[in-house]
């Protein structure tokens, strides 16, 4: 990552408005499908979106892409930092959105953390495709059972900015992914 991109990224990670975050996103090159393969640590990019900070509060760790047909969109960490994937189709998105303040409560995040393993799955819940978004053909994770596409741009080979494009929202939820080192066998 060049110095300019590093500075801009750090500024955005501290908090930004939607227009500034999207201008940065639009300035980045497309991500490729090959670039996506691997495990990634995620973090929200605060822009005032209703989902800002919510995933982290519930223990979201990131995403994993084993191949174009084998994407794990929601990887969480348990109390022992052991990673597991959950099935997003089992998350009550409508209820979550309708009661976002309740979802932000300590009780809700504690309940989710205690029961998240019920939602666990070994099966991939999304796939990767190249799609056009905001005028650029780029790597996109398409959820199997939800009206969500996570559309990626590359800050560098190991850092991505994602835009979660979800039906019903005027603007995307923004997040970053940083590649994790492969685990030694």
Write a short abstract of this structure.
26% of the residues lie in helices and 37% in strands.
Summarize model confidence as the mean pLDDT.
88
Instruction: Tell how many strands the DSSP assignment holds.
Output: 10
Spans where pLDDT lies below 50 across 5 or more residues: none
Structural class estimated from helices and strands: alpha+beta
Q: Mind summarizing the main beta sheet?
A: 10 strands, antiparallel
What gyration radius follows from the Cα positions, in whole Å?
16 Å
Q: Which shape, going by the Cα principal axes? A: globular
β-strand percent reads 35-45%
SSE blueprint and pairings:
Layout: H1 3-13, H2 18-27, H3 33-36, E1 38-44, H4 54-57, E2 60-67, E3 70-77, E4 83-86, H5 93-98, H6 100-103, H7 106-115, E5 120-121, E6 126-133, E7 136-143, E8 148-156, E9 159-166, E10 173-179
Antiparallel strand pairs: 1-2, 1-10, 2-3, 3-4, 4-5, 6-7, 7-8, 8-9, 9-10
Could you characterize the architecture of this molecule?
The structure is a single chain. With 185 residues, the protein is of the alpha+beta class. Helices cover 26% and strands 37% of the residues. The chain is built from 7 helices and 10 strands. It has a 10-stranded antiparallel β-sheet with strand order 5-4-3-2-1-10-9-8-7-6. A hairpin with a 2-residue loop joins β8 and β9 (159-166). It is globular.
Primary descriptors:
single chain; alpha+beta; 10-stranded antiparallel β-sheet; 7 helices; 37% strand
């Amino acid at each position: 990552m060049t110095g300019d991109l590093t500075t801009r990224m750090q500024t955005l990670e501290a908090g930004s408005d939607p227009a500034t975050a999207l201008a940065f996103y639009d300035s980045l090159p497309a991500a490729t499908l090959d670039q996506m393969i691997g495990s990634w640590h995620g973090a929200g990019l605060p822009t005032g979106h209703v989902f800002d900070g919510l995933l982290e509060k519930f223990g979201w760790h990131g995403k994993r892409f084993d191949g174009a047909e084998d994407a794990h969109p929601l990887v969480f960490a348990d109390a022992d930092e052991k990673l597991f994937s959950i099935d997003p189709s089992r998350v009550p998105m409508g209820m979550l959105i309708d009661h976002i303040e309740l979802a932000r409560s300590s009780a809700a995040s504690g309940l989710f953390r205690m029961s998240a393993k019920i939602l666990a799955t070994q099966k991939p819940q999304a796939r990767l495709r190249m799609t056009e978004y905001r005028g650029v053909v780029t790597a996109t994770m398409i959820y199997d059972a939800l009206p969500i596409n996570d559309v990626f741009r590359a800050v560098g080979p190991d850092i991505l900015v994602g835009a979660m494009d979800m039906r019903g929202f005027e603007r995307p939820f923004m997040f970053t992914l940083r590649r994790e080192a492969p685990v030694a066998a």
